[in-house]
């Protein structure tokens, strides 16, 4: 399973780190990530900002992401809830 964690804070680092421990998860991407996630060998930072919704959607579709975890609070979560993502 491929996982995308969106955000650049400690919360997102913890979520990504824990997701990477699952035997069901093959790859964990963090967009944009931070210095801490860059040091984790099991995580891959992606240089896409949390506000660049179209680029994040493209990345998720291009990489066949199975699960997306939106870390930032309400403001960005609301932006994601209004986007149309084709069903898998």
UniProtKB/TrEMBL annotation:
InterPro entries recorded: PreATP-grasp_dom_sf (IPR016185), PRibGlycinamide_synth (IPR000115), PRibGlycinamide_synth_N (IPR020562)
Single GO molecular function: phosphoribosylamine-glycine ligase activity
Record-linked SUPFAM superfamilies: PreATP-grasp domain
Alphabetically ordered keywords of this record: Ligase
Residue span, Phosphoribosylglycinamide synthetase N-terminal domain: 1-74
Gene3D superfamilies in the cross-refs: 3.40.50.20
Any single biological process term in GO: purine nucleobase biosynthetic process
Highest taxon of the lineage: Bacteria
EC nos: 6.3.4.13
PANTHER family cross-referenced by the UniProt entry: PHOSPHORIBOSYLAMINE--GLYCINE LIGASE, PHOSPHORIBOSYLAMINE--GLYCINE LIGASE, CHLOROPLASTIC
Name of this chain's protein: Phosphoribosylamine--glycine ligase
Gene name of the record: purD_3
């Amino acid at each position: 399973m491929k996982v995308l964690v969106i955000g650049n804070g400690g919360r997102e680092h913890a979520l990504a780190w824990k997701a990477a421990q699952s035997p069901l998860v093959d790859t964990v991407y963090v967009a944009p990530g931070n210095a801490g996630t860059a040091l984790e060998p099991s995580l891959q930072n992606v240089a896409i900002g949390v506000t660049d919704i179209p680029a994040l959607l493209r990345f998720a579709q291009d990489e066949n992401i199975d699960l997306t975890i939106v870390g930032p609070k309400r403001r960005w979560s609301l932006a994601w809830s209004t986007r149309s993502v084709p069903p898998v």
